[in-house]
Amino acid sequence: MFRNQYDTDVTTWSPAGRLFQVEYAMEAVKQGSAAVGLRSKTHVVLVCVGKANSEFSSHQKKIFKVDDHIGVAIAGLTADGRVLSLHMRSECIHYKFLYDSPLPVGRLVVQLADKAQVCTQRSWTRPYGVGLLVAGLDETGPHLYQNCPSGNYFEYQAFAIGARSQAAKTYLERKFETFPECSRNELIRHGIISVKEALAEGKLNGSNCNVAVVGIGEAFNTLDSKAVQQIIDSLEDRADEPPVDVAPVEGEQGAVQDDTDQAAAPMET
Amino acid sequence: MLAAAQKDEKKDQALKNLVGHPQTGRDCPFTLLNSPISHTQYPYVTGTSVLGIKYKDGVLLASDMGGSYGSTLRYKSVQRLKPIGKHTLLGAGGEISDFQEIVRYLDELILYDNMWDDGNSLGPKEVHNYLNRLMYNRRNKFNPLWNTLVLGGVKNGQKYLGTVNMIGVHYEENHVATGFGNHLARPIFRDEWHEDMTFEEGVKLLEKCMLVLLYRDRSAVNKLQIAKITEEGATISEPYAIKTHWELEAFKNPATGAVGSW
Predict the structure, then answer these.
(1) Which residue stretches does the UniProt record annotate as biased composition, category Basic and acidic residues (chain B) (predicted)?
(2) Over the stretch B186-223, which tens digit does the pLDDT of each residue have?
(3) Which of A25, A91, A240, B94 is the Cys-Cys partner for A149 at CB 3.0 to 4.6 Å?
């Protein structure tokens, strides 16, 4: 990453029309461990790798239940993620109090995006350094959204964020067309396999792999670590998935170029 | 944010010529800063009963078009039934100006809901809950909206009929009424209402109750409207009158029973 004279303030544009502080915030997301989300016609699944500080410590909590029908997986600055989850919970509960009805996911995501945008336009606050995968269900069906520090949001059939997420995305790109028709368990399996691709070292097990599901007739819940371990074991038994060719990861880190680069700023796509 | 709170903020802006009390922050004329706060109102122009029943295709509401000014039947073309968005109908008894204010709040609520344009919409249950919050909140501030509201609607095939009043009491039922309707119409509903009535049966039942109210409620006027809400939408009928009968024997010679000593 190249430092330059336009990156001190979030309120300073670069001559190429970029806000470097916002782009650096998005880099923070890429430093976090991987989080994957995928959606079928009836369910949405979130799978994450939770890093542990040391052998003695617990694994990072990356999935938060926001309401019975919405949950979120974070990548990046965990503290920011926690604060945003609290805000989302507050919004959901407020809507429930006013209307006795669950807050539609799309509306929550837009509110969140607007909140993130505020931080890109004030000199006294920094952008949030966390990317969110919001999984939820409302009357228009199951949804998966990604929220960026830039204040952008996108809806996805399947997506991955965080470190080595490109590897996970490669797997998802191969398989995503089958997702709409997948059953709940198949979807979870696909999620765990794709997250395996994003694991640098060590093995995936019930403790460092968090899985959560929400769907029609199923409130948002995080799977028990034993249940996750069982699925991981069953994946190893099944030899039907050939090893995935991991795509080269160089394109992912250091994406922020200096001003002379003509490529579109990441947030503009 | 509660749309009502936003409205209050705008009202505050408009009251700039009034002084804010340093402790309570209350806006009032300077001369009244140190007098006790009193908000409790009295209704001025009021509507009488509203009736509501569920039927096969949705919900039917009925009310007359009277606006009484105390004991005077002052206004005779007050529409007390209003459609709210695609899925709901609202009827009100009580202070007419407060009803108009409520309709304004709801129109704004529905507008913002429509502006999302995302396939989600507020149904009758949500509107009912919102109104309950609104009414209860005002009651807690000792500044009620002096109404009893009937809310009916259909969404995704689900029929909904409920009521909220000025102190925040709210419930859902198959048949509801406000004011005198509770005493005169509900007993008839309890006897004669049944599940899946046809439109004609429903209208006949409502007209029967409106007739009783016309005879016995002094604030009733003989100009009524029936509103219908189904999955397709809301329709409010043109105003019409119902036939009343006064050819009773007792009315022919009213002085017969009045024996006096002078």
Answers:
(1) 1-14
(2) 999 999 999 999 999 999 999 999 999 999 999 999 99
(3) A25
Out of B123, B130, B156, the one facing A98 most closely (by C-beta) is B130
- Tens of pLDDT, residue by residue over A4-54, are 888 888 999 999 999 999 999 999 999 999 999 999 999 999 999 988 888
- The span from the CA of B191 to the CA of A107, in Å, is 45
Cβ–Cβ of A140/B119 closer than 8 Å? yes
Q: Residue A94 falls within a domain, yes or no?
A: yes
Which of chain B's residues have a Cβ under 8 Å away from the Cβ of A155?
none
pTM above 0.90, yes or no: no
Nearest CB to B2 within list A98, A107, A139: A98
Residue B31 known to be catalytic = no
Q: CATH number of the domain at A218, please.
A: 3.60.20.10
Answer whether A69's CB lies under 8 Å from A107's CB.
Answer: no
Q: Which B positions 133-162 lie with beta carbon below 8 A of chain A?
A: 133, 156
| Vertex A120 angle, CA A119 and A124, to 5° | 55
Beta bridge partners of A213: A45, A221
CB of A104 within 8 Å of any CB in chain B? Answer: yes
H or E element in which residue B159 lies: strand B158-165
**Residue A123's domain spans which residues?**
23-237
- B120 and chain A in contact, CB less than 8 A: yes
Helix (H) or strand (E) holding A144: strand A141-147
pLDDT at B17 over 70: no
- Residue B260's pLDDT band (cuts 50, 70, 90): confident
Q: What angle do CA B193, B194, B195 make, to 5 degrees?
A: 135
Backbone phi, psi, residue B23, to 5°: -85, -50
Note whether ipTM > 0.90 here: no
Residue of A91, A99, A140, A155 to mutate, interface with B, max B Cβ within 10 Å: A99
| Residue A4, pLDDT score | 85
Residues in chain B, total: 262
Q: Count the domains in chain A.
A: 1
Q: Which residue ranges form the domains of chain B, and what is each CATH number?
A: 53-236 (3.60.20.10)
Per CB-CB distance under 8 Å, the chain B contacts of A98 are: 2, 129-130, 133
User: What is the distance between the alpha carbons of residues A24 and A246, in angstroms, rounded to a whole number?
Assistant: 26
- On chain B, the residues whose CB falls within 8 A of the CB of A138 are 120
Let me know if residue A131 belongs to a domain: yes
